[in-house]
Amino acid sequence: MFANPLCIEYSKRDITFDNGGALRFLLAEPSRFAITMLTCRYYQRDHWSVQTSSGATPLVTWDGQYWWNKSHREAGARLTNFRINGQSAGMGDVVSLLRADFPDVADALADFGDEAGETGLVTSLPYDLACDLAG
Q: Other C-beta atoms within 10 Å of 70: how many?
């Protein structure tokens, strides 16, 4: 649990309202998040699906990757296969729509995702002396 880097993969495909999946998710997520705060380097991959009932068309789905390296003062997230009600809905989809008429805007937004269903970003983190001392 306190490995550095801490690497985790979750399948969050059963976030439903009819069988307790949403409640199980809500109860588990705070402890999942709390564990990560103790690490200097973290990587998580997860697979999400939120639907009203088991077997129903998902309201929203995506595959995510989230990471940070506190020593390098950097964190990021990348979502792929992002869909709302079965329709691709990532920043890459916005880029495709804008490309022909607003290429400069499309180019700027492509840094946040340029494939259908893709969205992501990298950002800086504050200095963390404990992680610098840990190496």
A: 21
Q: Where are the domains of the chain?
A: 6-125
Indicate the Cα dihedral angle 39, 42, 48, 52, nearest 10°: 20
What pTM was computed for the model?
0.80
- What's the rounded Cα separation, in Å, for the pair 100 and 8? 40
pLDDT (tens digit, 9 = 90+) per residue, 110-130? Answer: 999 999 999 999 999 998 888
- Residue 95, judged by CB atoms within 10 A of its CB (0-12, 13-18, 19+), counts as buried
Q: Which amino acid is at 70?
A: K
Which parts of the chain are beta strand (E)?
6-16, 41-51, 60-69, 74-84, 87-88, 119-124
Closest of 25, 126, 22, 27 to residue 71, by C-alpha: 126
